[in-house]
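=== How it folds ===
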Amino acid sequence: MIFQLDENLWFPDPHDGEPDGLIAIGGDLSIDRLLLAYYYGIFPWYSFRHAAEPYWYCPLQRFVIFPDEIHVS
């Protein structure tokens, strides 16, 4: 389910989002909202179709690179 954000500072539970990690659309990019989002691992992204509203993502699985395990060939 994708939630529509308004002027209130909140985010839905990431487990209620889409399989690709999209959890909400809308809201703003205020400092308070960004701090709240980043605290919970949520980040804004813009869609080319709806550039006026940020899309908020929180993928449940993350890609992690361990520097001591990298082998470049």
